[in-house]
Amino acid sequence: MQELDIATITKRSIHGVLALVSRTFLIQLIGQIVTFLLTVYLSPSDYGIFFLVSTVIVFFSYFSDIGLAAALIQKKEAITTEDLRTTFTIQQTLVFIVIIIGFLLTDTIRILYDLDSKGVFLYYSLLIAFFLSSLKTIPSILLERQLDFKKLVIPEIVETLLFNMTILVLAIKGFGVTSFAVAVLARGFAGTIAMYIIKPWAVSFGFSRTVAKGLLSFGVPFQANSLLALVKDQLLVLYLGTVLTKPMLGYIGFAQKWSFMPLRLVMDNIIRITFPAFSRMSDEKAHLGKAIEKSIFAVVFFIFPVTAGMVLLMPYLFQLIPQYQKWEPAMLSLLFFGINAALSSISTPLTNALNAIGKIKITLYLMVFWTVSTWVLTPLFIFLLGFTGVSVASALIASSVILVVWLTGRYIPLKLSGTVLRPLIATIVMGALVWSISPFIIHSIYTFLLVILIGGMLYVGVMLLLARKQLIADIAMVRLQLRS
What we know:
This protein is an all-alpha fold. Helices cover 84% and strands 0% of the residues.
């Protein structure tokens, strides 16, 4: 018997999405403004060092979880104290081992990536922050199981605000890479304290072989997907650090940061909520299919126009702000990473749904395909196009979204043509107008913002023509759930 019925899941999911998006929108906006200012004050080389060292820590962090958190979130039965203690004990043991290895590898990493003392300090700071982050796992699981995203978002708000304020002040004062190191530590301590205030959990250790075996039966295949993602993404960046210069890594990091910004703002919040929600709807395929369609529509409704507008208008930002012209070499990378982001806004919710209903092997096969493709195509395109080849390869690989749609349709009834096509048409119309009027209108920041306003109004107008009934129905459903 499921802990929550469909009506409750729907209600909490809608409340969760609105809570996450509404509470994080301002934070994300502040984050993007800070990112913009940082890229004014920091050099491409400094940005490249942070991009590279952060990836090293992400690589280490993979070995600290082995899928136990996902297994607890996905578990249909109520979780027990024994489940939590076993998970925490295994995780902290792995975290301790990883951190020791991380410190032992300091000289190797310093020599391999030519890090100075500031780069090493950043590396140590990220290792400490990695440990602090692991302490938040159990309280986070408890909140996600309850679909209580209103509380879950509070520590993230604290972390983001403190990180952005710290790094901006230090970067303006000329601390360079050290700005990242201090900000990372401030974020780590503040986020952990806030999480335990919001969701107290008495830290305790324990181990049950039966519990561990049950959790690992889901966690290990799930983490196998993460391993391939690690090889596909993070290990690739570590490879790039050996074949590209730090400024080139900075250009790649800049392009990824901006092009994936809509994904982080909208899709990540929806994915975070729909994974536990879809898990509880796995036996109700009709409801699940409709829920997936609505989640994808919500994602692409925002991501398609924002991504297109960003790619079309970024060259004018380079012209209007002289200090920003140093990032002009990243323009082509921004375009191709933007294509990746648009296609990922369809494929990622679908693979999330497959994981949620237990089809881990299917997503594992997909990840194998994407990983092999990444390691074959990326070096080839780097040879042909230089650092821009990284983004070109990512766009080509993302086009496999067609395969993901077909595979998901074998297990869940879906009708995605209208869900995706209407926002795409509206985005094309908006993009054509923005592209045609921008050279004649944009002469200052004010006219730059005016074009954004015109483009946004046109997009909404076209969407009302193409999907008026769906938009009205979805808004009505949200309002109904909020009132109940």
